[in-house]
Amino acid sequence: MTTTLITGANKGLGYETARRLIGAGHTVYIGSRDAARGRRAAGQLGAGARAVQLDVTDDASVAAAVKTIEAEGGLDVLINNAGIEVRGPNNEVPTAANTTAGMMREVFETNVFGTVRVTRAFLPLLQRSATPVVVNVSSGLASLTHVSEPGHPTAAYPGVAYPASKTAVNMITVQYAKAFPDMRINAVEPGFTKTDLNGNTGTQTVEEGVGIIVRMAQVGPDGPTGGYFDAAGPLPW
Questions:
Q1: Is the distance from CB of 186 to CB of 227 less than 8 angstroms?
Q2: Which member of 15, 29, 166, 176 is catalytic?
Q3: Pairing state between β 49-53 and 184-188
Q4: Which of 7, 42, 64, 176 minimizes the number of CB atoms within 10 Å of its CB?
Q5: Tens digits of per-residue pLDDT, 213-223?
Q6: Cα–Cα separations (whole angstroms), residue 109 to 68, 81, 125, 161, 205
Q7: Nearest to residue 190, comparing CAs of 233, 115, 137, 146?
Q8: Is 157 a catalytic residue?
Q9: 237 pLDDT higher than 90
């Protein structure tokens, strides 16, 4: 039995990923900052789902989640899915002209520091697994190649904090993959998906978006590592 933890799994991409992996036979921990929402999501997902309170910005919360999962048998797959974006009063994305250091810090605390905090805390459990896997949910906006390419859809995005945070996640992915060659550690781009993160303005459903997350969560020991992928294949950094 494969045991998987998904951060930010009580809704959106995380919830749908959990549903799909449970269907594939995984036992899935529904990591949720709000314990009640996590329990509700796990209840809706049914057998195979277990709720665990997990705030990726809080050391004590992450440590407690490690103890819980360790006591119940360990971990094989970690999906770092929790992520935020900052928006203005009219739901607009702050541009380069009005992005503050505080906005950057807020986004990085969850998207970057949270990814490092959770990954580092769960490394001992993952190292005990026969087939350890880490999936970092990145974004197409993390690609410096595409964002700087005139005419590419991502080049029109005006924000700074969110793309910068996901580019950092890509670097974290590469460096962890090199440091732990026995693990499969990859970053994925789900695509522009309708979620609360973007005010449900995305062009695809969560059912469509999770395909690459689910696929990379199930890679075997001979699968890729240190890569950045969307549904069509490798992406340029």
A1: yes
A2: 166
A3: unpaired
A4: 64
A5: 999 999 999 99
A6: 23, 14, 23, 11, 27
A7: 137
A8: no
A9: yes
CA 172/CA 165 separation, integer angstroms: 11
Taking the C-alpha atoms of residue 188 and residue 165, their distance in angstroms, rounded to an integer, is 14
Contact 164/216 with Cβ under 8 angstroms? Answer: no
Residue 108 identity = F
Q: Strand 3-6 and strand 133-137: pairing?
A: unpaired
In the numeric block, which tokens belong to residue 201? 């303005």
| Integer Cα distance of 5 and 81 in angstroms | 10
Strands, E, within the chain: which ranges? 3-6, 27-32, 49-53, 77-80, 133-137, 184-188, 228-230, 233-234
pLDDT tens, 183-199? Answer: 999 999 997 655 555 55
Give the strands of the sheet with 3-6, arranged side by side.
49-53, 27-32, 3-6, 77-80, 133-137, 184-188, 228-230, 233-234
pTM of the model: 0.95
Phi/psi region, residue 230 (left: phi>0; alpha: psi -120 to 50; beta: rest), is beta
Q: How far apart are CA 106 and CA 56, in angstroms?
A: 12
Domains of the chain, start order: 3-86+112-139+169-234 (3.40.50.720)
Q: Looking at 15, 29, 157, 162, which residue is catalytic?
A: 162
